[in-house]
Specification:
Length: about 180
């Protein structure tokens, strides 16, 4: 398993494919997590207790941008049985599954006990409330808070305050904010 500095790995964590884990600096994977997928985890990320990242057979990847979190009990699926069209079993090779990457941009967070289905690109600054369900192929807007089953947008995230915090810790400077403003024009 490749990881950067200050990596904290909790107790009773099961990592099925350590060769497919690429982890940045200052990351914590807490107790009782189970990870069987390929993962690319940025810097300053937290995976809280009892979180599962499953499926994808190493062919698909869970990608987590820096300064992001999965709260306790989150379930991320990179593959799932097709509950509408197929048998729901793992013992029959003919059964087709729904598969895809799950990507979280920088500064994102997923609330406790939420479920994320395959094939989702969660852009920068998005958070998802507790107990939410994220269906496959959901179309997100950056810097928006979503919640519900299935999720719906509920409000904008306080990007200005988050940028101030990132400036305080020296992660970004005035130039970053100016560049962002130009990009948004
Ligand atoms: C999503 C969240 C951030 C919103 O917080 P908030 O700003 O206080 O939300 P509000 O109370 O203004 O709610 C706005 C609307 O969203 C709904 N809502 C809020 N959280 C929701 C949730 N988790 N699931 C479904 N709906 C939710 C509210 O019922 C309300 O709906 P309405 O406008 O129809 O009345 C918060 O509720 C949440 O779920 N936080 C997750 C935190 C977490 O998991 N922490 C774990 C440890 S880090």
């Amino acid at each position: 398993m490749k990881h950067g500095k200050n990596f904290i790995l909790g107790e009773y964590v099961i990592i099925k494919k350590p060769d497919l884990m690429d982890i940045g600096d200052n990351v914590r994977i807490a107790d009782f997590c189970r990870i069987s997928s390929a993962c690319k985890i940025g810097d300053d990320c937290e995976i809280a207790p009892g979180t599962y990242i499953a499926g994808g057979d190493g062919e698909y990847t869970f990608d987590m941008g820096s300064f992001s979190s999965l709260a306790a009990g989150v379930k991320i699926w990179l593959s799932t049985n097709d509950y509408v069209n197929e048998l729901v079993t793992h013992s029959v090779p003919e059964v087709k599954e729904i598969k895809g990457n799950v990507k979280m941009g920088k500064f994102t967070g997923i609330g406790t006990n939420s479920v994320v289905m395959p094939n989702n690109d969660i852009p920068e600054g998005v958070t998802i409330g507790a107990l939410s369900f994220v269906p496959s192929n959901y179309k997100f807007e950056p810097w928006t808070v979503y919640a519900g089953q299935p999720i719906r947008p509920i409000k904008k995230r306080n990007k200005a305050n988050i940028m101030r915090t990132l400036m305080k810790i020296g992660y970004i400077d005035e130039n970053y904010i100016e560049k962002e403003a130009l990009c948004a024009e």
